[in-house]
């Protein structure tokens, strides 16, 4: 489009919006700064030779010498276009354009190097390029065509036939069709709503006499601009321009048009379109060409839909696969403007695409672009401006554009300066000001093949209206005043309207700020098809965002002296970050960008999936890990906890980008997120920043986690053996455990420490190499739902049976006699010390706070475990042991070499013989064993 630098070249004649406006020359009629003299060896070119003047008949003339090549570009812009056609003459402007073009070509066929003409709603333009020697031929060709084009009956029919060809070709150009539909829908009264080339029926009714009368009444020197650039002498050419065009009639001047009323609310327009895919356009009313905001609007168009890294391309095409392609352009014309964004849709619901587009627009208005995103969009807009000036003809066209619409060709320099100096806040303000629902028209085109019941115009329009209404209700939101926080043991907690919980521990002595963002979820919310999805999401979250590639994210983190990574577990998904205290705000912005706008590109998904599959293969080669998995598979047989955090080779291989994205969007919404910041920060400032970053997040409940099956011990296999190529056998013997909120949680921690930690109760089994066990550790795994209490042993293959029997005997003694006070005191001291040392780094403090809050214990303090551990007594440990260590609920998993098996199955020798158990054990344990 000639009037707007950001519209693709193929749309130039489709929705062109420039027109003639009287030019007010500065500094008198002749502004030549360095006229060439005959005694000069070097003749000046460019701005130094630019001259502007007007003829008595109103023709505005702009001359600029450029002696790089022996060529001249001549452009004559006539300020009449399709928007000036009277009723009944729709399509006449394009017929006139072809008549003018034919006249120019006929007059200078031997002298002209290239001729052309185009029409827009505001203008009709003739342009030609000639060798410098043929300047007189070029001027006569332009003047003769403009003043007296041939509109005889044969010439009129030839011009009308060419106009019909334009109409036919335009119907095959999807972008032209979309642009025409946008104009027709967005304008209700102004003639910009008309079809640029008219219709077949309108062209058929045109009469030669009526078109000739329209030309004679509307076209003239009073609304025309002539621009000449190239290898010539200004004083000579000026005389020849006066001689050729001085006798041209002034004409009617600028024509009056119907004004467009102010738009008060959004509109939705649905109609059938040709083609195989539905199309959706969001169209906003914007100011005319002269607006000082045009530069910001150009950049907004680039941000939304110009290029492969735009917002719409990232979200609709690459991330969500809702569209096959997206685009955006700015229509800035004489009387008004539009910002048009378009998506060629995929097979999904049309309203999903509309919602996604509106979400991106809202985010842009709320947060603005990133600095890198702005740099890229600004460069794209500047490059398009420059590209339209490529070549002598293009350069002349840009001079004509600004001379016509701004009254001064040098206004381009001011616009380019504004474009180059745009900052994030200016773009953000422009988005909030112009991309609002009251200025929006939603245009949807439905091809015949998709005109099903759900896509009938009335039903679809109603659904789209609901989408826009919902988007308008939630954003772009202005950050409200942060609600008063709560304070528990130096931890300040804010509950934000978005549902995000923010915990801040201010530590003025820290040079680094630790941030943890945690969702409750993890393996607990995966089904068998999604096993490993949380781990893959954790890798992808901190890899790239919609506006930052992996390389850009890494570079920005390096600039901040920061680091960031995702993590996953049985009950959590999150991102951890550490940043220098001086740059915590920028670091927090990066981390939230990862949470809210992850890229999840196909390439990244495939690359991280391969890395995860390699990790799974390494895990499956570790006998200890295999034994633990075998144990968990049986203990948690009907519960998601039976799945390893990494998933399996089979499940991860089927995790497509689409399934990951759906899982993430369904399960991990802002509501339910816990964000913890520890370091030298102002809590109020942190809360305000987080609230601003989540201001547009819908305050709705997140999708609830699927109900998990309880651990049903009676249905579990008691003993499972797997044979593998291993040197030493691995044993896992254990029972269903307790949850994070269970009152016996810490007592079981003490029991595990008594058995294989500070208490060393089972050290007798390790004291001699002749003993049955080489390595032994007791673990109490607690989670949101009951976990496990287990013993993990490494033994020589021939000692498997003896080791299992010895473990059972020792556990029986615990149940019979309990533990001593000395053992409990030693275990308590060990646990208190270990847990205190584990909190040495700020990141560990942040993690502890985040996990407690995210997993259902928001009031947990960093000292509470230590205080409660100090109160644990031997009777507490015995009570917890007798509750958990139950032979009826026991699971035994063994990994051993086949050659060492005591039988063909490897199971008979592991059974607990009732006579042996009765001799070795007593009380609760032996009675339960004899009952088996």
List descriptors.
17% strand, 932 residues, Cytochrome Bc1 Complex, Chain A, domain 1, disordered C terminus, six-stranded mixed β-sheet, seven-stranded mixed β-sheet, alpha+beta
Architecture overview:
- With 932 residues, the protein is α+β, with helices and mostly antiparallel strands.
- 41% of the residues lie in helices and 17% in strands.
- It starts with 50 loop residues before the first strand and ends with a helix.
- The model is unreliable at 1-40, 700-707, 709-714, 901-909 and 913-932 (pLDDT under 50).
- The residue fraction in helices comes out at 40-55%
The structural domain count equals 4
Q: Please report the distance between the alpha carbons of the first and last residues.
A: 87 Å
Oligomer: single chain
Rg is 39 Å
What class would the helix/strand composition place it in?
A: alpha+beta
Strands, total number: 23
Q: Which segments are poorly predicted (pLDDT under 50) over 5 or more consecutive residues? A: 1-40, 700-707, 709-714, 901-909, 913-932
The CATH topology label of the largest domain is Cytochrome Bc1 Complex, Chain A, domain 1
Work out the strand percent: 15-25%
Strand order of the largest sheet: 12-13-14-18-15-17-16
Treating each run of at least 4 consecutive H or I residues as one helix, how many helices? 31
Mean pLDDT reading = 83
- Name of the level-1 CATH class of the largest domain: Alpha Beta
Can you summarize the main beta sheet?
7 strands, mixed
How does CATH name the architecture of the largest domain?
A: 2-Layer Sandwich
CATH homologous superfamily identity of the largest domain: Metalloenzyme, LuxS/M16 peptidase-like
Q: What is the overall silhouette?
A: elongated
């Amino acid at each position: 489009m000639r009037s707007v630098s950001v519209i693709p070249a193929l749309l130039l004649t489709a929705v062109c919006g420039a027109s003639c406006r009287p030019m007010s020359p500065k500094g008198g009629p002749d502004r030549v700064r360095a006229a060439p003299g005959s005694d000069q060896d070097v003749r000046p070119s460019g701005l130094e030779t630019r001259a502007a003047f007007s003829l008595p008949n109103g023709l505005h003339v702009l001359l600029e010498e450029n002696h790089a090549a022996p060529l001249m570009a001549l452009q004559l812009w006539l300020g009449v276009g399709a928007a000036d056609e009277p009723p009944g003459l729709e399509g006449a402007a394009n017929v006139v354009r072809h008549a003018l073009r034919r006249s120019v070509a006929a007059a200078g066929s031997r002298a002209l190097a290239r001729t052309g003409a185009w029409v827009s709603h505001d203008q009709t333009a003739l342009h030609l390029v000639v060798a410098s020697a043929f300047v007189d031929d070029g001027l006569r060709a332009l003047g003769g065509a403009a003043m007296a084009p041939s509109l005889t009956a044969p010439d009129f029919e030839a011009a009308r036939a060419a106009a019909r060809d334009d109409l036919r070709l335009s119907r095959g150009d999807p972008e032209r069709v979309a642009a025409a539909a946008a104009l027709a829908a967005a304008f209700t009264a102004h003639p910009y709503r008309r079809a640029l080339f008219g219709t077949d029926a309108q062209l058929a009714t045109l009469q030669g006499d009526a078109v000739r009368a329209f030309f004679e009444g509307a076209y003239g020197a009073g609304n025309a601009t002539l621009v000449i650039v190239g290898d010539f002498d200004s004083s000579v050419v000026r005389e020849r321009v006066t001689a050729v065009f001085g006798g041209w009639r002034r004409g009617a001047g600028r024509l009056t048009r119907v004004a467009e009323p102010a738009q008060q609310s959004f509109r939705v327009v649905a109609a059938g379109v040709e083609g195989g895919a539905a199309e959706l356009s969001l169209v906003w009313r914007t100011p005319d060409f002269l607006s000082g905001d045009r530069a910001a609007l150009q950049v907004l168009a680039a941000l939304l839909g110009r290029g492969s890294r735009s917002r719409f391309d990232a979200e609709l095409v690459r991330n969500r696969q809702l569209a096959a392609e997206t685009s955006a352009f700015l229509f800035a014309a004489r009387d008004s403007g539009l910002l048009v964004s378009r998506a060629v849709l995929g097979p999904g619901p049309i309203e999903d695409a509309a919602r996604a587009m509106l979400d991106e627009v809202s985010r842009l208005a709320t947060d603005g672009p990133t600095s890198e995103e702005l740099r890229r969009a600004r460069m794209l807009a500047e490059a398009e401006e420059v590209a339209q000036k490529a070549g002598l003809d293009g350069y002349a066209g840009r001079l004509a554009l600004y001379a016509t619409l701004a009254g001064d060709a040098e206004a381009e320099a001011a616009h380019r300066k504004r474009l180059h100096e745009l900052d994030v806040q200016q773009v953000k303000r422009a988005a909030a000001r112009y991309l609002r629902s009251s200025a929006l028209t939603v245009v949807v085109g439905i091809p015949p093949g998709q005109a099903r019941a759900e896509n009938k115009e009335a039903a679809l329009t109603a659904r789209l209206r609901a989408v826009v209404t919902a988007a308008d209700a939630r954003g772009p939101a202005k950050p409200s005043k942060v609600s008063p926080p709560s304070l528990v043991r130096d931890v300040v907690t804010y509950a934000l309207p978005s549902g995000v919980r923010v915990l801040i521990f201010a530590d003025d002595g820290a040079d680094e700020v630790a941030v943890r963002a945690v969702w409750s979820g993890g393996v607990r919310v995966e089904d068998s098809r999604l096993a490993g999805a949380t781990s893959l999401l954790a890798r992808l979250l901190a890899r790239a965002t919609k506006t930052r590639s992996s390389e850009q994210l890494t570079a920005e983190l390096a600039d901040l002296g920061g680091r960031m990574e995702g993590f996953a577990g049985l009950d959590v998904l999150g991102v951890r970050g550490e940043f220098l205290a001086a740059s915590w705000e920028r670091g927090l912005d990066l981390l939230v960008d990862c949470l809210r706008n992850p890229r999840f590109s196909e390439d990244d998904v495939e690359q991280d999936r391969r890395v995860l599959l390699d990790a799974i293969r390494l895990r499956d080669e570790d006998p200890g890990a295999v034994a633990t998995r075998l144990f968990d598979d049986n203990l948690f047989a009907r519960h998601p906890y039976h799945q390893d955090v990494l998933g399996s080779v089979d499940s991860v291989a089927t995790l497509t980008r689409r399934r990951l994205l759906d899982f993430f969007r369904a399960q991990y919404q802002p509501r339910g997120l816990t964000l913890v910041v520890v370091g030298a920060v102002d809590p109020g400032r942190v809360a305000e920043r987080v609230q601003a970053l989540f201001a547009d997040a819908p305050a709705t409940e997140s999708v609830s986690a699927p109900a998990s099956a309880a651990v049903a011990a009676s249905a579990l296999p008691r003993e499972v053996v797997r044979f593998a190529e291993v040197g030493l056998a691995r044993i896992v013997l254990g029972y269903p455990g307790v949850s994070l909120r269970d009152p016996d949680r810490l007592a079981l921690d003490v029991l595990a420490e008594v058995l294989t930690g500070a208490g060393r109760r089972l050290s007798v089994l390790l004291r001699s190499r002749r003993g049955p066990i080489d390595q032994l550790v007791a673990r109490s795994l607690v989670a949101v739902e009951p976990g496990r209490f287990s013993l993990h042993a490494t033994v020589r293959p021939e000692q498997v049976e003896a080791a299992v029997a010895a473990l059972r005997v020792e556990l029986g003694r615990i149940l019979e006699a309990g533990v001593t006070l000395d053992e409990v005191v030693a275990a308590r001291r060990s646990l208190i010390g270990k847990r205190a040392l584990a909190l040495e780094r700020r990141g560990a403090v942040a993690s502890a706070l985040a996990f407690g809050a995210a997993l259902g214990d928001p009031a947990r303090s960093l000292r509470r475990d230590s205080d409660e551990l100090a109160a644990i007594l031997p009777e507490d440990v015995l009570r917890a042991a007798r509750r958990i260590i139950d032979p009826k609920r026991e699971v035994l998993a063994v990994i051993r070499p086949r050659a060492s098996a005591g039988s063909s199955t490897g199971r008979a020798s592991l059974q607990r013989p009732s006579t042996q158990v009765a001799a070795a054990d007593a009380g609760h344990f032996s009675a339960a064993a004899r009952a088996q």
